[in-house]
Amino acid sequence: MATMNINEIGVGVGKVTGAIFVAPKGTTLPTDAATALNSAFKLLGFTSDAGVTISESRSTSEITAWEGRTIVLTAVTQYTENVSFTPIQCNEDVVKLMWGTAAVTVSSGALAIGHHGKMLDPVEIVIESVSNDSIGRVRRYAGTFELVERGEQTLDGTQVDGRQLSFRAVPDANGITMHEYVAAITGSTN
Questions:
Q1: What are 33-91's pLDDT values in tens digits?
Q2: CB 168, CB 80: distance < 8 Å
Q3: Residue ranges covered by each domain of the chain
Q4: Quick one: which H or E segment has residue 104?
Q5: Is residue 162 within 8 Å of 44, Cβ to Cβ?
Q6: What is the pLDDT of residue 15?
Q7: Burial environment of residue 105 by CB neighbours within 10 A (0 to 12, 13 to 18, 19 or more)
Q8: How many Å separate Cα 59 from the centre of its chain?
Q9: Distance between CA 28 and CA 46 in Å, rounded?
Q10: Nearest CA among 163, 170, 122, 130 for reference residue 23
Q11: Max alpha carbon distance in the chain (Å)?
C-alpha cells in the first residue's frame, strides 16, 4: 500500500547538461536510466521552455452480445504514442533531424537545407529528465520514431526561432511504443 511521501513527487525538468539525444535507427538503446548512452546518440542542444510533450491516443470499439445487448468486450482498435518538442538551436544535428541527411549540406560551417515533403528515415530518440534528488533521473525512449509534423515557424522578432517537431513512436516486435526507466540517484541529478 502506498503512503504519503513528498519524495515521490517529481517535476520533469530537462537535464542542464542536455536532455534530448538522437541516433540513427538500429543504434543500441539504453536498458536503464543511469548507464551512459551509446556514442552514436547526438545531443540536439537547447529545447524551448515548453519542454517535451508525450501524448497517447487510444480508440476503442465496444462489442455487444445479441442476448440483452450487453457489452461483453471493449477492444482497442488503434493506439499511438507521440512525442513533440521544439529545438531552439540551429545546428547540423537539428536540421538533419528536421529534413533528413540527404537534404542538408554542410560547408565551412554553413548549412544549406532543401525543404521537401518526403517521409524521413526513422530515428532513435532518448529524452532525459530529472525529477528531484529523491527520484533522480528519468529516461524515456522508443525503439523507432517517425517525424510526422514540423510546426509553424514565426519570424517576428519576439519568438524563439524554432519549429515544433512531432514524432510518432513505431511499436517494436512486442508492441511496445516507448520504454521508461526511473533511477534513484543520490545527490544532485543535474
A1: 888 999 999 999 999 999 999 999 999 999 999 988 899 999 999 999 999 999 999 99
A2: yes
A3: 13-182
A4: strand 104-107
A5: no
A6: 79
A7: exposed
A8: 22
A9: 24
A10: 122
A11: 74
Phi/psi-derived region of residue 148, left when phi > 0, alpha when psi is between -120 and 50, beta in every other case = alpha
The Cα 184–Cα 140 span in angstroms is: 15
Contact 145, 83 (CB under 8 A): yes
Q: List the one residue out of 95, 103, 105 whose CA is nearest residue 45.
A: 95
CA neighbours closer than 13 Å in the CB half-sphere of residue 30: 28
Sign, CA torsion 115/119/120/123? positive
Query: Which has the closest alpha carbon to 146: 165, 127, 173, 174?
Result: 165
Residues, the chain: 190
Whose grid coordinates read 532513435? 124
Q: What is the pLDDT of residues 135-189, one digit of tens each?
A: 567 887 777 899 999 999 888 888 888 999 999 998 999 999 999 888 764 444 4
Q: Residue 148 is which amino acid? A: V
Whole-angstrom distance, CA of residue 29 vs CA of residue 8: 27
b/e burial code for range 39-78 (CB count within 10 A of at least 16 → b)? eebbbbebbeeeebebeeeeeeeeeeeeeeeeeeeeeeee
Can you tell me the distance from the alpha carbon of 41 to that of 72, in angstroms, rounded to the nearest whole number? 47
Q: What is the pTM of this model?
A: 0.85
